[in-house]
Amino acid sequence: MTTSFSQWRPHPWHGLDIGLKPPLLVNAYIEITPFDLVKYEIDKNTGYLRVDRPNRTSSLPPTLYGFIPRTYCGDNVKSLMDSAKVGDADPLDICVVSERPIAHAEILLNARVIGGLPMLDGGEADDKIIAVLDKDEIWNDVDDIADLPNSLVNRLIHYFTTYKALPNEQQSTFVGKPYGAKHASIVINAAIKDYQTKFE
Fold it and tell me: Of the candidates 28, 55, 69, 169, which lies 20 to 30 Å from 42 by C-alpha distance?
């Protein structure tokens, strides 16, 4: 009997597949959970999670948070946001809603894309794709962000609007009107093209 395995750990950004049926069913590599008091971020050189910073405020992400492998926010992503000067030069972020609590980061899951939030961070396009965990019994019938409870969407908007803000500091992030699955597909395809231009 032979066993097939990778001798070296694949880099989560460059070595993993985009997903089963992009742009609507994608892989999500999770960096942060709703229970994390520290912001973790993929180390671009090694592929391991690095402590980026302790959270500056009491805000915690309302959902799982990570990125879609083999995506990049460059010129194509920037062109979809009128006020953006550049893309943020990172993989495309994704928030994944799950009914069951998932407390572990550095995991890979299948995410069904339902929409997104256009976020501008210091002049950089920094979209947040919104998805639900594939085959989640509670969220299985959700096909578009309009199907999510408004309270959950508002929590996400509030988090990304305020998570960097401290009293007496100027706000650096702006979140626009949420968009549905159709536009999210356009953003993901743009990020795939940006990745291919940058790395392939």
Answer: 169
The per-residue pLDDT for range 75-121, each reduced to its tens digit, is 999 999 999 999 999 999 999 999 999 999 999 999 999 999 999 99
DSSP 13: T
E strand or H helix at 28: strand 25-32
User: Do residues 139 and 110 touch, judged by C-beta distance below 8 A?
Assistant: no
* Domains of the chain by start residue, with CATH: 25-199 (3.90.80.10)
The angle at the Cα of 27, spanning 172 to 116, to the nearest 5 degrees, equals 40
In degrees, rounded to 5, the angle at the alpha carbon of residue 73 between the alpha carbons of residues 67 and 77 is: 120
Could you give the residue ranges of the DSSP H alpha helices within the chain? 75-78, 150-162, 181-199
Asked if residue 126 has pLDDT above 80, the reply is: yes
CA within 13 Å, CB half, 153:
19
Q: Helix and strand tally (H, E) in the chain?
A: 3, 12
Mean pLDDT of the chain: 93
Cis before 22 (ω within 30)? no
> What is the pTM (predicted TM-score) of this model?
0.94
SS3 78: helix
Q: Which residue has the tokens 């009107």?
A: 177
Is residue 175 pLDDT above 60, yes or no?
yes
